[in-house]
Amino acid sequence: MSWDWQVFCQDTITQEVGQSCFGKNGDITYLDWMLSAWGWTVSVSLLSLLIALILGAIIGTLRTLPDRPWIVRLGNAWVELFRNIPLLVQVFVWYHVIPAIFPALKRVDGFVLVVFAIGLFTSARIAEQVRSGIQALPRGQRYAGMAVGFTTFQTYRYVLLPMAFRIIIPPLTSETMNVFKNSSVAFAVSVAELTMFAMQAQEETARGVEVYLAVTALYVFSAFVVNRIMTFIEKRSRVPGLIAASGGGH
Amino acid sequence: MKKHLMVAAISVLAAGTAFAQANDTLAKIKSSGAVTFGVRESSGLGYTLGNGKYVGFHTEMGENILHDVQKQLGLAKMEIKYQPVTSQNRIPLVQNGTVDIECGSTTNNLARQKDAAFAYTTYVEEVRIAVKANSGITGIKDLNGKTLVTTTGTTSVQTLRKNKRADGLTFKEVMGKDHADSFLMLETGRADAFIMDGSILAANISKSKAPSEYKIVGEVLSVEPIACMLRKDDPAFKKAVDDSIARQIKDGTLAKLYDKWFMQPIPPNNVKIGLPLSAATKAAWDAPNDKPMEEYKIAD
């Protein structure tokens, strides 16, 4: 097996290796292309994550409301709907099926649809984590809120959620990294992200090994950066005395 | 201790490489009484019917080649082992000796010639434009401002990019994850035109719900010689393969195969593809050669 890393300096139209590995005057090299693909991967991931965090937090919280059986059932239905269908299938439903029902959506870019697909898929998983985080708290905490005369909203705002969110950070880290990895399905609806770049560039250059290695490295790097950021947040937001295993000081 | 392990590992690696470089496929076939044939599971020129059964124009032609090789070697019995390959793994599998000959829809181009050898060109693919019959698009010039779909991981993407620059067109490009997906985009109106190998377009149209609603229009965007791929630096085996191809062209076997797979109803659905022999393929048969794609020019 011989390596040829120069493939990244090749122009995507003439296939010639230029002086610089970045194209000039509108020429695009495979390196330029890969970095732009990486940008798409990161954009899809961050936007999906935003949707997932907001919706996941809301729905997860609603699922634990006392005396609101219908809201809890709706929340449960949401979670079961989105986590029981494979992500790739959901992406196709968003792209091919929903626009067939609502023609106005045909004009919507694949990028937007895939962000919603991954965002909603992940929101179900985050909702489940938020719910279990809240339910993991001792029952006494809720009673404490009621005892001081808080409304339900205040109990959640000042007592339950601040604790619950902090104890679910480790599973949230995995979920955030999963969003980055799951963003690879975006290629299926024409988003020019890393996986699509890899499939296309390996066909054009016949240097599949180098292309896939570089793309793998970028995925690993992206997920690892997320992991580091989340670990930092986890350390800073640790509840003293609650998570004993992480070396708390008591 | 560790050093010893390292040395052992390196020598094993070196031995492996040396073995892989022992390029005498004919001797290998003779001594083992078997040959590994790389085939495609779903392409215009070769596909599977399931249960390990592989058919298609190039698959059957490859079988003919291997029977000729068997005759040449004087083997009473030779086993053909079918190994499905994909665009991603075909070159490594040919290089490392897993596959002795691959006949599918591999384009012979200069980039690949660095890694593998190619037999005589047996099919010349033309990249064409498929549109809805009522779209009013008749050629490249009508593509300005339209949305075009092509399939990820194909050379058509490159062709499209080159044409975009050469003709100064502005169009939106979307990519399907496979040919069926790309065709679906044309079908559902997400794209105005599907740019792809003519045989793939014709096959997709023939299998669609309403074949008469689509047509292949306009000029040929690119021509690509398709050939069987072999290991590099094995002239004896390449000659045996090329001789067999020349024989099949001469006695009409190849023309009959073409008629069988492109002009007659084919399994599994017994639908005709209906793609007449192109002038470019005919020219390749008239003067057998192994020229790469870069030496082809688009005939006006």
Automatic annotation (TrEMBL), chain A:
NCBIfam families: HEQRo_perm_3TM. Its main location: membrane. It comes from Diaphorobacter ruginosibacter. InterPro entries: AA_ABC_transptr_permease_3TM, ArtM/GltK/GlnP/TcyL/YhdX-like, MetI-like, MetI-like_sf. GO terms for cellular component: ATP-binding cassette (ABC) transporter complex. PROSITE patterns: ABC_TM1. It comes from the Bacteria. Residues 38-230 form the ABC transmembrane type-1 domain. The lineage of its organism: Bacteria, Pseudomonadati, Pseudomonadota, Betaproteobacteria, Burkholderiales. GO terms for molecular function: transmembrane transporter activity. The keyword Ribosomal protein does not apply. This is Amino acid ABC transporter permease. The chain crosses the membrane at residues 37-60, 81-102, 108-127, 147-169, 211-230. It is a multi-pass membrane protein. Keywords: Cell membrane, Membrane, Transmembrane, Transmembrane helix, Transport. It holds the Pfam family BPD_transp_1. It is found in: Cell inner membrane; Cell membrane. Belongs to the binding-protein-dependent transport system permease family. HisMQ subfamily. GO terms for biological process: amino acid transport.
From TrEMBL, chain B:
Residues 1-20 form the signal peptide. Residues 34-265 form the Solute-binding protein family 3/N-terminal domain. InterPro entries: Bact_solute-bind_prot3, Solute-binding_3/MltF_N. Pfam families: SBP_bac_3. Keywords: Signal, Transport. Gene3D superfamilies: Periplasmic binding protein-like II. One of its GO terms (biological process) is amino acid transport. One of its GO terms (cellular component) is outer membrane-bounded periplasmic space. Belongs to the bacterial solute-binding protein 3 family. This is Transporter substrate-binding domain-containing protein.
